[in-house]
Automatic annotation (TrEMBL):
Residues 132-237 form the Mandelate racemase/muconate lactonizing enzyme C-terminal domain. The lineage of its organism: Bacteria, Bacillati, Chloroflexota, Caldilineae, Caldilineales. Signal peptide: none annotated. InterPro entries: DgoD-like, Enolase-like_C_sf, Enolase-like_N, Enolase_C-like, Mandelate_racemase_C, Mandelate_racemase_N_dom. CDD domains: MR_like. This is Mandelate racemase/muconate lactonizing enzyme family protein. It comes from the Bacteria. It holds the Pfam family MR_MLE_C. GO terms for molecular function: lyase activity. Keywords: Lyase. Coiled coil: none annotated.
Length: 388
């Protein structure tokens, strides 16, 4: 079997562009994948335009290790988010083809299931006014949909420090959410790398009384010694540190692991070179007694890849999910994904990823001219004006 064509297709939404790839073979099998490359859509598509003729076309899709190795090694430059996203698109689509060829779900080719359902947490649900009343009502709607965990960033446009008024407002939002969902639902505090260590530590102490499930990316990702400082200071609180969505290679993770600066890694499969790379990382993390909770803000194929990994990974914790709180057509772009029921996904079914791509839906919602800025006022409403 040989790969004969790779077709990128980008679908626009109110705040993100989702790039799908369709990988075709000479035996008629077709694999799919998708990625949300935040503010880098054209860069990823441009990378594929150069890399695919060199490393992908004419290759056997079963040769996943070889394809990934060549895409990573032979370009010589230092791989980052763009390159690792391009590699992931090809890698995930190859797994989809391999599963179809063998008549098996991808997770069965990676060791088989170690659980019979996959816990999910909601994100993207708080596109409301930044008031305790609005956050309270929105959080109630999440648990009414059956979710038993939800994540949010209450900190507005904060960077390094917060004015006292903003700090108290953020605390009030967390208090409102905890009151809305009760004591048995996990609330996960997203910090988006906003703070310097002193501020992150102070906020973590203030929020401890609301029993958060984790603090995510409390400081920017470039300086892991700063993260270690935060981790050490808040360890007595018993709240885990989660990080990793902006770490794209194993060499960066090496330092995180050796410092033991976090408890949960949030690698994004679509920015880390794909499913097998992430499976290897999870095994490595397991040697440090760390859990994995993959970052996932893409479309249905990104979610499918994450579910297949979750199904066969022993130190998996919980799966992020946006698309129950996004435009309905995002889920329609590739059908076959299980829905979240009572807070859990069922295991994926069907060979490969188990999806059917709907190109008509993608074409009906073309790429938009977007710049999503997490440090702008009201970013959390996830409404960015402008179309291509």
């Amino acid at each position: 079997m040989k790969i004969t064509r790779v077709t990128p297709m980008t679908m626009g939404t109110d705040w993100r562009n989702i790039t799908f790839v369709k990988v075709e073979t000479d035996e008629g099998l077709v694999g799919v994948a998708d990625v949300r490359a935040l503010n880098r859509t054209e860069a990823v598509v441009g990378y594929l335009k150069e890399a695919v003729p060199r490393y992908v076309l004419g290759n056997d899709p079963f040769n996943i290790e070889q394809i990934v190795h060549r895409m990573y090694l032979e370009d010589f430059g230092r791989a980052g988010e763009v390159v690792m996203s391009g590699i992931a698109l090809i890698e995930i689509a190859c797994w989809d083809i391999v599963g179809q060829a063998l008549g098996q779900p991808v997770y069965r080719l990676l060791g088989g299931a170690v659980r019979d359902k996959i816990k999910a947490y909601a994100n993207g649900w708080y596109t409301v006014e930044r008031t305790p009343e609005e956050f309270h009502a929105a959080a109630k709607r999440v648990v009414e949909r059956g979710y038993r965990a939800l994540k949010f960033d209450p900190f507005g446009a904060g960077f390094y420090e917060l004015e006292k008024e903003e700090k108290f407002k953020s605390i009030a939002l967390v208090e409102a959410v905890r009151d809305a969902v009760g004591p048995d639902v996990d609330i996960l505090i997203e910090m988006h790398g906003r703070f310097n260590p002193a501020t992150a530590i102070d906020i973590a102490r203030e929020l401890e009384r609301f029993k958060p499930g984790w603090y995510e990316e409390p400081v920017p990702p470039e300086n892991l010694a700063a993260l270690k400082k935060v981790s050490d200071a808040i360890a007595p609180l018993g709240v885990p540190i989660a990080t990793g969505e902006r770490i794209h290679t194993p060499f960066e993770y090496r330092e995180l692991f050796e410092l033991q600066a976090a408890d949960i890694i949030q690698v994004d499969i679509t920015h880390y070179g794909g499913i097998l790379n992430t499976k290897k990382l999870a095994a490595w993390a397991n040697a440090y007694y760390m859990l994995i909770a993959p970052h996932n803000v893409g479309g249905p194929a990104s979610t499918a890849a994450a579910l297949h990994l979750a199904a066969c990974t022993t130190n998996f914790k919980i799966q992020e999910y946006f698309n129950d709180f996004a435009e309905a057509y995002v889920k329609e772009a590739a059908t076959g994904l299980p829905e979240v029921v009572d807070g859990y996904f069922a295991l994926p079914s069907g060979p490969g990823l188990g999806l059917t791509l709907n190109e008509d839906v993608i074409r009906a919602h073309p790429q938009r001219e977007l710049h999503f800025n997490l440090f702008a006022e009201d970013w959390h409403k996830r409404r960015v004006a402008g179309d291509r």
